[in-house]
Design brief:
The complex is a heterodimer of chains A (114) and B (114). Chain A is built from no helices and 11 strands. Chain A has strands at residues 5-7, 10-13, 19-24, 31-37, 43-50, 53-56, 65-69, 75-79, 88-95, 104-105, 109-113. In chain A, the strands form 2 sheets. In chain A, strands 2, 4, 5, 6, 9, 10 and 11 form a 7-stranded mixed sheet that branches. In chain A, strands 1-3-8-7 form a 4-stranded antiparallel sheet, with no helix packed on it. Chain A is globular and about 40 Å long. The termini of chain A are far apart. Chain B is mostly beta strands and 114 residues long. Chain B is 0% helix and 51% strand. Chain B starts with a strand and ends with a strand. Classes of the chains: A mainly beta (114), B mainly beta (114). The A-B interface holds A 4, 31, 33, 35, 40-43, 45, 48, 50, 55-56, 59, 91, 93, 97-108 and B 6, 32, 34, 36, 42-46, 49, 90, 92, 94, 96, 98-107.
Chain lengths: 114, 114
């Protein structure tokens, strides 16, 4: 596609429910990143994919968070048993990978846990 | 590991005045450096980047930034600010080893007054 697409744009969920956030990167981009942006905070790195593999999962805040990427394209970030502190904007970015680090960002998914 | 510090949380400037947003990084070698802008409700847009060569880089929307190795800085400048420049600005650093995620600062919020 023309840009990185994320869905849904907004999600309100009840505490304890599971949510899935979707990211559709720019076609041909091999690298895909998930970041979390909380109010007043910078971008917190969550996980990075190169192709379908995730060489760096170091940013996932707990085992309630997981992500997968299939076909080297679409990625899904899953948060199980959501907590109020999970409320944030979840941003996805993609890049050509390798030494070309210019990352293109989607509009984000605003998650609110009530 | 690399890190980024943006010392100013919030800056207010008058329309037409000059602007400088500070960014300091920590990295053991010459990094890749980026400035992104996030307008309200929008994703992040790349303003400019430094990979190598000329330490003064030009970006979109009339912005420029200068890489100063001796000061570990990559400050963003604009000679004359427009009201539409009001946004959140993020500095980011990437490792030259490639395939590692960008590390972002916490951002500087720019307000523009008449």
């Amino acid at each position: 596609g023309a840009g990185v697409s994320q869905s849904p744009s907004n999600k309100v969920t009840e505490k304890g429910k599971d949510v899935e956030l979707r990211c559709d990167p720019i076609s041909g981009h091999t690298a895909l990143y998930w970041y979390r942006q909380s109010l007043g905070q910078g971008l917190e790195f969550l996980i990075y994919f190169q192709g379908n593999s995730a060489p760096d999962k170091s940013g996932l805040p707990s085992d309630r968070f997981s992500a997968e990427r299939t076909g080297g394209s679409v990625s899904t970030l899953t948060i199980q048993r959501t907590q109020q502190e999970d409320s944030a904007v979840y941003l996805c970015a993609s890049s050509l990978g390798g030494a070309l680090l210019e990352a293109f960002f989607g509009q984000g998914t605003r998650l609110t846990v009530v | 590991a690399q890190s980024v510090t943006q010392p100013d949380i919030h800056i207010t400037v008058s329309e037409g005045a000059s602007l400088e947003l500070r960014c300091n990084y920590s990295y053991g070698a010459t990094p890749y450096l980026f400035w992104y802008v996030q307008s309200p409700g929008q994703g992040l847009q790349l303003l400019l980047k430094y990979f190598s060569g000329d330490t003064l880089v030009q970006g979109i929307k009339g912005f420029e930034a200068e890489f100063k190795r001796s000061q570990s800085s990559f400050n963003l400048r604009k000679p004359s600010v427009h009201w539409s420049d009001a946004a959140e600005y993020f500095c980011a650093v990437g490792a030259r080893s490639g395939n590692t995620p960008l590390v972002f600062g916490k951002g500087t919020r720019l307000s523009v007054i008449a």
